[in-house]
Amino acid sequence: MSKVATGFVCGQCGYISPQWLGRCPDCEQYNTFAEELTFYKGASDDKKDYSKPEKITEVNSVNFKRTKTGISELDRVLGGGIVPGSLVLLGGQPGIGKSTLLLQLASQVSNQGQKVLLVSGEESVNQVKMRAQRVGSLSDNTLVLSETNLEYIDKQVKAVNPQIIIIDSIQTMSLPEVSSAPGSVSQIRECTARLLKIAKDLNKPVFIVGHVTKEGAIAGPRLLEHIVDTVLYFEGDSCHSYRIIRAHKNRFGSTNEVGVFEMRDSGLVEVANPSQLFLSQRQSEPGSVVVATIEGTRPLLVEVQALVTPSYFSNPRRQVSGLDYNRLAIIIAVLEKRVGLSLANKDVYANVAGGLKVGEAGADIGIALAVASSLKNKKLSADTIAFGEIGLSGELRQVSSTEQRVIEASKLGFKNIIMPELKVKTSEKIKLCRVSKLEQAMEYLT
Fold this sequence. Notes:
single chain; 3 domains; globular; seven-stranded mixed β-sheet; 11 helices
């Protein structure tokens, strides 16, 4: 028999406490505890044949075949397609396009002759059809169900036998045996575990949608991310039309890949050349530098902007958008110590144009050149880009995928590349400006 007890559960990480706490000792968040019923399963009298350990060399390997979604950018992030029996979590802010993307996914897979079950706990079937008509994703093989009871959904899955299951969203699902409200920690945990069992037992991929909190984390316990096989985050904001899907966890592929989409009235459209999109409105001005970065296996050219102004406060401001704040502080310190720039009484603002987030060390030289360019009011030539990591002694260090960055820059018509001293094969159309110290890179500012 199962025992029922009352406990206080943290809404951020799922930590259970016998009494209410103002601060969670696990995730250190404040005012996140809520009282819920907790279930403890007792000893079972059911006789069950448990599995036995096997030698790993004697385990029968299964060569699974991935299912192509028909959306190349999504296939890239998933690692080449959908893996049978996988549980994929798609998180993102409200209105960013999660439901639209999965509806387009259902349409593409349905057009291949496979049956898809789309379960919506937030919208009626009529509302789902209205969106499908708007984005042109109508298909006879797409089945729509408006339901929040996961027990009933489980029965319908076995009756319909779809090839792919989509749950929108996990925060609206509930199980009758769990007495807490939908969206609570207990409900999310138990519903996700049930969906995982459905995916593994039936060997069918399941996609679930998860809402994101103000802090950018998926609403519910962090345990949710540990249960699923793949975690995809939808990034973007209302000021820009493009959307980026980034894999934060993937048991069947790389976690460094990104997919780029553009939001239009007809739905999400793949961006074949993201670098051209990010540089489409660029103007060669002081404080603007194009940087060659790598996202997974894809080279991207982005514009790094910096603005240096006199500070009227005792502590100058250091503000970043799309960059690592601590990395900017280190680069400013190197510029002051190794190059001799005076930034102690200056406010420094750094930004990645277009809203893209860049966390790679290869963008260091671009940030440094942008800050120095804004301070000296000198600009880099419009056909010049830069990449390389900066050490604390001011040296320019090697980064990965150098040849891919050079090839991408050549495709977009750039003539000069400021980079570390490396031997790279390139064409005669582009000039490699190899530098070993940050001071040498500053000589290209005119």
